[in-house]
Design goal:
185 residues; alpha+beta; 2 helices
Amino acid sequence: MGSPSKPARARRAAVAPAVAAAVWAGASGCGIVGGGSPADLDVISVSSPQFRDGDPLPHGYSCRGGIGNPPLRWSGTSGAKSVALVVDGNDSRDGAEVHWVVYNIDPETTELGENTVPRGARQGATTSGKVGYVLPCRADDSYRFTVYALDAKLDLPAGAPLSESLERIAEHTIARGRLTATNIQ
């Protein structure tokens, strides 16, 4: 394939620190995972057939229902080498809590089924240290389902530590989109 052009390398060099800082702030409880909106990032459209942006998360996808992750759909990842997904909840009292990290999703994938992980994708550790979707429980939190288009497949093992996976996602992000549930239904 060859190496990226000078403008592409310069854009990533300028964007990576901003995204890394935003992701790190969220992981450390100081902000939102994947927060901020660097102007150079392309936008991914993210939706779910189960809820709209700004609506409550249906209780079935919380610890009260136990179904697992909600289905998601996205578009706008053309040019990506892989896709990642980070689900986090934010409470101003307790800070951010990461509920799921999935990376190395095939860039041709445009949807995620209910309670599934795309074939070939890997899951990283969450705030609790568990690997996989950790059902959210805090009824008044906002829950963000953020999809990242990446310029590389991540060289991380399954179960990678949260700080490492978030940092690598931030370093390789070229586009981002988010679906937010305002609380749990």
